[in-house]
Amino acid sequence: MTEAWRSLVHVCRRWRCLVFLSPLRLNLRLFCTPGTPARDTLDVWPALPLVIEGEITTSSGADNIIVALGQSNRVRRVNLACLVDRQLERLLAAMQLPFPELTRLELELISDGETPPVVPDSFLGGSAPHLQDLQLRGIPFPGLPNLLLSATHLVSLNLSNVPHSGYIPPEAMAALLSALSSLHALYLRFQSRPDWESRRPRPPPSKRSAIPPLTYFVFNGAIGYLEDLVTYIDAPHLNHLSITFFHQIDFDGPRLAQFISRTPILVDCDAYVDFSADTARVRLTSFKKDLAIGISCREHNRQLSSVAQVCNSCLPPLSIIESLYIERRYWQQLAWNNDAIENTLWLELLLPFPAVKNLCIFKDFAPGIAAALQEIVGTEVLPSLQNIFVDIFVERPEQLGPFQETIGQFLAEREVSGHSVTISVWDGGRIRRRS
Q1: What are the residues whose beta carbons fall under 8 Å from the beta carbon of 390, sequence distance 6 or more?
Q2: Taking residues 173-183, what's their average pLDDT?
Q3: Strands, E, within 192-322: which ranges?
C-alpha cells in the first residue's frame, strides 16, 4: 500500500492535482528497490519522502540504491538485507551526509570476509535527530553511542550478531541507554564470547540510571557482559526479558538477580523449565509478563546443571512460584538419557522452589525425577508439594500405579510427615491457580 496513490494520479488531471495537494495528509511515499531505475524515475515525481528497501544482488541494483541515497534530505526509511562486505562499504560511503528525515534504518550484513567493514563515526553526518528504529545485524559500529546521543526519539534498538570489532563496553552501553529517553525495546545479541570477559569484576556504581520506557529486552551473549550492564541500570517497567547465555562451566549472576528483583516481572507467575537439542531454559510467565533465561549447550547433564545454576544464582528468590513445569521445547523430539544424569542435578533444580504445589513432568524426564525424589529426606526439597502430574500416562492411565510404586518411598515419607502428595495424569495444559 506504500504506493497505492500512483493509480489515483493516473485517473485524471483533477485527481492528480488533489493527490499532490495533500502529500502529508495522504502520507505519500516513493518506494525504491534495487530494481528501481532511480536515476531516471526520481525526478519524474514530486519530491516525496523515499522508502528504500530490498536485497542487493547485482551491481546495477547497488547503483540504483546509491542514487536513491543521494537524496538524503528525502529518505525516511532504509531497509537493506543480505549485504556483502563490498556492498556495505559502498552504502556506508554514500551515507556520510546527514539524513535529517530518517526514521527507520535496518541493515543486515552477510559477511564474506573475516573482518567486516566498520561503520565510521561520520555515518549519517554524526546525527540522527528523527531516528525511531535502528537495526544493525552483523555490522560493527563501535562509535554508535556518539551517534545515538542525538537520537532522542529512538524507540527500538536492535544490535544483532555483533562481531568482536563492534564491541561496546557495558559502561558505555549503560550510559547510552540512560540517554535514550524514549527507548521501549532493546535487542543486544553477540556473535561470540568477547575477550574482555577474563578481567576482574568491577565494584558496583554508587548510582544506577533508570530507563522507565524500557519494556522489552532481549540479550544473547556472555553472562559477564550482562552482569556488568545491569549493574548500571534499572528498568522499572520491564515486562519482557529474554536471555540466552553462551555456555560455560559456572553460572553466577547475583547482579542479574538483583536487577530482575527491581522489575515487575515476578508477579503471579508460573515456572517452566524446558529442554531442546541445543538449549536449556527456565521461563517465568504471568499475564502479559515473561522472563526467560536459556543456556546454549547440547550435553544433557550440562543442560540440567546449567539451568539449575541459573535458577539458584541468577534469579531472585522464587518463593512465589506455585506451579513448576518440566517439559521439552514445543514439538521437538528429545532422546533424553536419564542414566547419564546424576540425581543430585535434579534436586539442585528443584531446590529453589519452596512454594511449588504442582509439579508437572514431561514423560522424557519422569524416570530421572522419580529417582531423584526417592533420595529426598524430609521436606528440604519441594516442602509445599501437593500434586505431581505426569503426561506419560495420558493414553494409558492404568500405568499410573507403577509410577506411584517407583516413588513409593517418597510418597510414604511425605504422608507420614503430614504433607501427602497426589499423583495424577497431566494432559500438557496449564494447571489453574486456586484462590
Answers
A1: 360, 361, 363, 366, 400, 403, 423, 424, 425, 426
A2: 93
A3: 209-210, 216-221, 233-234, 240-245, 270-275, 279-286, 289-296
Burial (CB count within 10 angstroms: exposed 0-12, middle 13-18, buried 19+), residue 102: buried
How many degrees, rounded to 5, is the angle at CA 190 between CA 255 and CA 278?
90
Residues contacting residue 14 through CB under 8 Å, at least 6 positions apart = none
Instruction: Calculate the alpha carbon distances from 110 to 85, 166, 183, 194, 231 in Å.
Output: 8, 15, 27, 20, 33
More confident residue, 300 or 267: 300
Least confident of 31-40, 135-144, 173-182: 31-40
pLDDT of 274 above 60: yes
Q: Is the pLDDT of residue 18 over 70?
A: no
Beta-carbon contacts of 41 under 8 Å, excluding residues fewer than 6 positions away, are none
Residue whose grid cell is 555483533: 162
Environment class of 377 (CB within 10 Å of its CB; exposed 0-12, middle 13-18, buried 19+): exposed
Confidence of residue 295 (pLDDT cuts 50, 70, 90): very high
- pLDDT grade, residue 355 (50/70/90)? very high
Cα 354 to the center of its chain, rounded Å: 28
Q: What is the pLDDT of residue 245?
A: 94
With 0.90 as the threshold, say if the pTM is over it: no
Q: Residue 6: enclosing H or E segment and its boundaries?
A: helix 5-9
| Residues 190, 138 contacting (CB under 8 angstroms) | no
Beta carbons within 10 angstroms of residue 34's beta carbon:
21
Cell of 31: 518506494
Torsion of CA 218, 222, 224, 230, to 10 degrees: 0
- Return d(Cα 422, Cα 215) in angstroms, integer: 39
Residue 28 neighbours by CB distance under 10 Å: 20
Alpha helices in 111-216 (DSSP H): 144-148, 170-179
DSSP letters, 225-237, are HHHHHHHSEE-TT
Q: What are phi and psi for residue 254, nearest 5 degrees?
A: -65, -35
